[in-house]
Write a structure and sequence with these properties.
Distance between the termini of chain A: 20 Å
Helix content of chain A: 25-40%
Shape of chain B: globular
Order of helices and strands of chain B: HHHHHHHHHH
Distance between the termini of chain B: 15 Å
Strand content of chain B: under 5%
Number of strands of chain A: 20
Structural class of chain B: mainly alpha
Largest interface: A-B, 33 and 22 residues
Number of helices of chain B: 10
Oligomer: heterodimer
Chain lengths: ~600, ~280
Amino acid sequence: MSNTSFLSVKNLSVDFKTRNGIVRALDKVSLEVAKGEVLGIVGESGSGKSVTAYTVMGLLDDAGYVSGGSAWFDGINLTKAKESSLRDLRGREISMIFQNPRAALNPIRPVGKQIEDVLLRHAQATRHNVRDKAIEMIDKVKILEPEHRYHSYPFELSGGMCQRVMIAIALACNPRLLIADEPTTGLDVTTQKATMDLIQELTRSRNMSVVLITHDLGMAAAYCDRIEVMQKGKVVETASVNTLFTNPQHSYTKKLIAASPGPDSKLENLTKSTLEKDETVTDEGVTADIRSSDSIAEKRPDVLMEVIDLVKIFPKRNKGSFKWPWQKTDSTINEFRAVDGISFTLNRGESLGLVGESGCGKSTTSSIITRLLDQTSGKIVFDGEDITQIPASHFSRLPQRKKIQMVFQDPNDSLNPRYTAHDVIADPLLHLMGMRKGKEMTEKIEQLAAMVGLPLHLLSRFPHQLSGGQKARVGIARAIAVDPMLLILDEPTSALDVSVQAVVLQLLNRLKNELGMSYLFVSHDLNVVHLLCERVMVMNKGRVVETGTAHEVLRNPQQDYTRKLIDAIPHFEPERMTKTNCKNIKLEVSQIA
Amino acid sequence: MKQFFRHFKYIMGENPVTVLSFSMFFIIIFFALFGSWIAPYDPYVTDAANTLSPPSWQHLFGTDNLGRDVFSRVIIATRLDLGIAVSAVAVSFLIGSILGCSAGFWGGWTDRIVGRLSDTIMAFPLFVLAMGIVSAMGNSVENIIYATIIINLPFYARVSRTEVSVQRNAGYVQAARLSGCSDTRILATQLFPNILPTMMVQVSLNMGWAIINAAGLSFIGLGVRAPEAEWGIMVAEGATYIVSGEWWMAFFPGVALMLAVFCFNLMGDGMRDLVDPQRRT
């Protein structure tokens, strides 16, 4: 073994036993991590990133087993080691931060106690000082009022705070290697930045090695020294950050880099180097310049929808003691203004982006517009008619239902697991178009499937037999089946891999041009929004803080909040990156010396 | 249909316990349907010359105090016991899941009424409640079924209520609203199929329970009456002869009862796997 690399994985292969025989999840994966190094493992879902991490930790599922190769940590063969010695290693020498902090924390134990557990398990503290040490850890991960938060349960903390607690648990015993498996999925961009900065700061100061698993190339570029790109269980490329982005060798790496949207990227460029023909949507519509359609919209402002002073108030749970009905409660305290008087217009054929962090009211707004939720006050004039007059519970069976459709955020959750793709698309046709089951409907469904690029033989499959991108296509086909005038896209690509996201965005743009729909694109990612939208609206705490053309808002934000949002998105612009990377190398050199 | 059989074969191949329970189930069904053809003797014909004879090749399970063939009686009784259990469980499954789904979906007052109703039923010792119902309404097969329906209702209502209230805000429910489905349609075509796997486990457990319940009622003299061939009565009749050494009269119907209940208890997992689309690949 070399003197610097203390985690070394050699030709590791992992197989899984499944119903359809043995599936190879990892195929001769090799990687080396040196002391104090941050290694990024980048790849799309199913590429074997997480399996690598779990194998190193000895946490493989029962169905999976190591079929070849080995993983060495500081002279110990991890693949052969006994469970008891692995247990000593975990947490003490190697720690892991999981994808979903809420799921990884025990919901019925105060977070302070959970930090104590690790400390006591590895004899890093005694009964007498363990409490102080735990509070010290909470303080170190920059949670305010650590004494108070020691007693908090996970549900009382925000997602970002939970992840901080996870970091505290992972780092409590000063491990030498930290594995972070997508540590920021599900967090807002600003929280993501704060969390990653914290991890970087804490691990740097302790000269800890980090393996950062992510699907986000921008993040890998910002925080890693070296990157391994994985595809289908194999490592296709290993290079330092600088070389990888300036001079990618493998075609898959090139494809990934091209598909990641940056502030300057254009929709048609996203899949330029795509090699897989079946996933590519070849069409002319994409090349139509976004700006030209913008100018058309300006010339004839044909208003499709006007939202006037929309307000939604949710009652807050009464946190105080039980009150009898005759005891008056102060209603003004017990309300939460999710949407606080927003107004905007949307023209025909226009797409408007709605951007903000979670909890800013963007989903509530879109639910009210789709009439799944009743507003508290305000008006929505849609196609010359005030649709807020109709209560949400009656809306589903009216002819207006056809005009507003929605594409949901999570393609897993929004498709009924017991319906085949065909049945899912048939549902709106049956109930809104009054179609009967038969030849006509089958033809219509096949036509829709062709429109969204879904191969016809997949129509008879159940959702769990489809990939993420295919599910997204089914969801889009269902939404456009009834020829809506307005399509609300609620983060339609957030659950998808970058290369699939690129294809879906192109598909959405083509459909818009072909069918002349208006889009309301709800997202937290400004880089994605500007690809598809002419205008952007930034929301914060239920109010609109900034409106403007997408280009303007992204290039020249007027408000502090918008600027903060844009700055938090990790980029990999070559010029900027080279600088930070040089700094990293310098740091490393000084540490080794 | 072809797909279903392939899936069925796979589920069977995966777990030997499921194979065992399903084959027992098919044997029970077979006896219930064709029992009168298989039974070697008429279960109601007495034979004064041949009372209380121990198991032999003529009479596999022996004969009872009136000389009737116990083997034939055990087989004939399958239809009655299974009939009571199946019809009672089917009706309480239907009513219970309608009540529970509505409670879980709409919440509010529907939820409160259904919830308190099932609490009230559960507050009684259920067998005693069934005894009360049957003795008040009169000894008959129908009344046993009604009693079994009532005491099984709360289980279905509770399970379906919980499942629906977890899933009612899922994305696919919202999507169905956008597709123009009314609430009732969403419940029936979108949500109900999704809670079916959990309900199936409950159904199979309840089947065994309903058989014991029917036999138990007959055992204590409520419900089915002699000379009808029924496992509970047969055990009751045989019980008095155990002391004098004629064990076979109570033993064989008892074993039949036990096997039937055992079979339904084992079937739960297999049934769930069978209706769960996630298991199809």
